[in-house]
Write a structure and sequence with these properties.
mainly alpha, 6 helices, 0% strand
Length: 130
């Protein structure tokens, strides 16, 4: 059983099975410490419980980030991506037209632009003498 805190650098090299095994060990150790606390343990156990809870959270966080990176690779280039993997941005930006949609010109607009183009005016510049 591990008595020291789990550091993120220790988790990086491990595969999924090792991480699950380590998570199980940490949870069983936490359960034992909680029963000892109820039975009337020392105050040192309280800090150890705190450290164990944080270590479990670190392992779970690492597992979740690994799963999300794998999912991002799987959905890369696909038409539809799960909502939680899409960029958050803001609600207004998400609902805005895409660049392609904004540049599309309808058939009626094309005809109007060809038959009635924007007029060009030549403006004569006068010099002002002071």
């Amino acid at each position: 059983m591990s008595s020291s805190k789990v550091k993120p650098a220790q988790l990086r090299g491990k595969n999924k099975e090792d991480l699950q095994k380590q998570l199980g060990e940490l949870k069983t150790e936490l359960g034992q410490l909680r029963t000892q606390k109820v039975a009337g343990g020392a105050a040192a156990k309280l800090t150890k419980i705190h450290d164990l809870r944080k270590s479990i959270a670190r392992v779970l966080t690492y597992i979740n980030t690994q799963q999300r990176t794998q999912l991002r690779l799987f959905y890369k280039g696909k038409k539809y991506v799960p909502l939680d993997l899409r960029p958050k941005k803001t609600r207004a930006i998400r609902r805005r037209l895409t660049k392609h949609e904004a540049t599309i010109v309808t058939e009626k607009q094309k005809k109007r632009q060809t038959h009635f183009p924007q007029r060009k005016y030549a403006v004569k510049v006068r010099e002002l003498n002071f």
